[in-house]
Amino acid sequence: MKRKTILTLSSLAIIATVYLFAADHIDAPGVASTTSDITDFYAFQSPENNSNLVFVANVQGLLSPSATQSAAFDENVMIEFNIDNSGDNREDLVIQCYFLDDQLTVYGPVAPSFTGTTSTLETGASSTQVAVTPYGQQAIMGESNGIKVFAGPRDDPFFMDIAQYSEIIAGNATAFNNPGADTFAGTNVMSIVVELPKALIGGSGTINTWVTSNRKQ
Amino acid sequence: MKKSYLNRIALLAVCALTLAISACGDDDSPEIPITFLQEDQMGRPAINTVFVTSASKDAFNVTTPSQQGNAFQAAFQTQLLALNAGYTTNLLGLDAAGFTGVLATDVLTVSLDGTTTFFDGTNVLTGRALADDVIDVELILIFGGPDATQNPGLTSDNVSANDKAFLNVFPYLATPF
Fold first, then answer.
1. How far is B162 from A158, CA to CA, in rounded Å?
2. Could you report the predicted ipTM of this complex, rounded to two decimals?
3. Residues of B in Cβ contact (< 8 Å) with A34
4. CB contact, 8 Å: B106 with chain A?
5. At how many degrees (to 10) do helices B134-143 and B65-83 cross?
6. For the segment B72-115, what is each residue's pLDDT rounded down to a tens digit?
7. Judgement on whether residues B85 and B19 belong to the same structural domain of the protein
8. How many Cβ pairs within 8 Å bridge chains A and B?
9. Which one of A176, A189, A195, A198 makes the best mutation probe of the B interface by having the most chain B beta carbons within 10 Å?
10. Is residue B53 domain-shared with residue B126, that is, in the same domain?
11. pLDDT tens for each residue of A22-66
């Protein structure tokens, strides 16, 4: 435990001082190490049901186990999955993840009132709720309208030898090590997982999708 | 003075209108819409971290994808050539302008018709699964040249899997440390 904490601190030191190549962890000065910092985004067919798609958004990366105990989602930060199903890279549907009183409410998918960088909470849309799973407890799943939702701390699924990449970029090395060392080993993130029927977002074909974090005004 | 007075009247009028609408509306809805402003944004992994210059990282996060190509493609190309001065084309057959044109619009394309993977040897950019080694894919596309054989020391970080096994059931991500 103590060793992991130290490892995480040294990872942070490396990451803070060199050019970054993480997924989206601490990507920009305005969001680095804040509650709105997105670390990763995944979208994949459900391993449990071929008719479903799964969206994952992770925030607040590089949490040591001790830091995870006190980590929480920010009620002033709404996480939004954006879906373009017409090929113009503008969102036709959004799924909004809103936290209040240790509870996640997921609105949508629904056509948003506004596109672009301003959002309003689509409270008229159908919603699915779940309690945020506390650290150390079994995952709690919320389900309604065929939509499954989860929110809580998880192991960071991202893996990379960012330390050696940093050495390469700094000119101190010319190649990766073999085997490499996963800089993100032993660290956690705050995760949101939403699984829904593909039929709710177009059914077939290809979508363009991205995730945003949005601060309450 | 006069102007601010008028502004105050206008504000009162808007408030009155808002209240009137709220009073007539659905009781389940909040009376005042909750609005948000975007702070961070992500489509594909490692795009902002690798290709956007330090001074533009915050701007990239609040530029909507439909405008990112115009705003950032040229800078992405400069950064690509800074990382790999010998870049010609990559495994996807894209030259520097073509590759960075794709990257600058930072959305994840996802198939609703089957396999979803960043790259599995057959399918290209049909989604992103938890176990996908996305960094190796990006290293290959940046450093590997047209047949993925160039710069062999730079095309894999030799970390090919997560430190914990993923779950076969919802929520799929492994339990925290």
1. 7
2. 0.90
3. 39
4. yes
5. 60
6. 999 999 999 999 999 999 999 999 999 999 999 999 999 999 99
7. no
8. 280
9. A176
10. yes
11. 788 888 888 887 899 999 999 999 999 999 999 999 999 999 999
Count of structural domains, chain A:
1
Rg (CA), chain A: 18
Could you tell me what percentage of chain B is helix, strand and coil, using 3-state DSSP and rounding each to the nearest 5?
45, 10, 45
Query: Using a CB-CB distance cutoff of 8 angstroms, which residues of chain A are in contact with residue B134?
Result: 23
The whole domain housing B12 covers: 1-35
Average the pLDDT over B27-53 and give the result: 86
Chain A nearest C-alpha distance from B9 (Å): 23
Residues B63 and B148 in one domain: yes
Segments forming the whole domain that contains residue A118: 2-215
What is the distance in angstroms between the Cα of B175 and the nearest Cα belonging to chain A?
5
Q: What average pLDDT does this structure show over B3-25?
A: 45
CB within 8 Å: B39 and A139: no
Q: How many CB atoms lie within 10 A of CB B79?
A: 17
pLDDT class for B5, splitting at 50, 70, 90?
very low
Please report residues of B whose CB lies closer than 8 A to that of A116: 64
Q: Is residue B6 pLDDT above 90, yes or no? A: no
Do B24 and B52 belong together in one domain? Answer: no
**Secondary structure letter of residue A200 according to DSSP:** G
Q: Are B5 and A181 in contact (CB under 8 A)?
A: no
Question: What pLDDT, in 10s, does the model give residues B125-144?
Answer: 999 999 999 999 999 999 99
Residue B84 lies in a domain: yes
Mapped onto helix, strand or coil, the DSSP state of residue A18 is coil
Task: Please state whether the predicted TM-score (pTM) of the whole model is above 0.80.
Answer: yes
Of A208, A186, A189, nearest to A26 by C-alpha is: A189
Q: What is the CA radius of gyration of chain B?
A: 24
- When pLDDT is averaged across residues B37-42 and rounded to a whole number, the result is 97
Nearest to A150 among B45, B157, B170 (CB): B170
Instruction: Confirm or reject contact between B31 and chain A (CB < 8 A).
Output: no
B37 touching A (Cβ < 8 Å)? yes
Q: Which residue of B107, B117, B162 is in closest CB contact with A84?
A: B107
Total domains, chain B: 2
Low-confidence ranges of chain A (pLDDT < 70): 1-21
